[in-house]
Write a structure and sequence with these properties.
Length: 113
């Protein structure tokens, strides 16, 4: 089994998250989203494509960050590549996301039939 501890890097308006969003990861993710995602007029992309584990508490952190960004006049865009764990979790939870960093269309919120 691979050891995929939580890692996050912020660069050029993108927060890249990798590994398991475990107890430590949830705290770090919450802090990073608050720091980079609530600047009025700001735009933060959160790339979750390499996340191996995203529990409901992590979904709650993302949901609260989306709301906080909206209230602050900022935008957070979640990105989860097709077939990734994060993509499946976000789809089941009906959170808006895009499938790639290059996707500039409307976030995907459609659930499969």
């Amino acid at each position: 089994m691979l050891d995929r501890t939580f890692q996050a890097e912020f660069s050029d308006g993108t927060l890249r998250v990798r590994g398991e969003v475990d107890d430590y990861g949830i705290i770090a993710l919450r802090n990073l989203l608050a720091e980079h995602g609530t600047t009025p007029g700001g735009h933060l992309v959160v790339d979750l494509g390499e996340v191996d584990y995203l529990p409901s508490v992590g979904v709650g952190v993302l949901t609260k960050a989306l709301g906080a960004a909206h209230r602050a006049g900022a935008e957070i865009v979640l990105v989860a590549r097709r077939g990734s764990i994060a993509q499946r979790v976000l789809m089941v939870c009906a959170l808006p996301f895009r499938e790639s960093l290059d996707d500039d269309g409307e976030p995907d919120t459609d659930l499969p039939a």
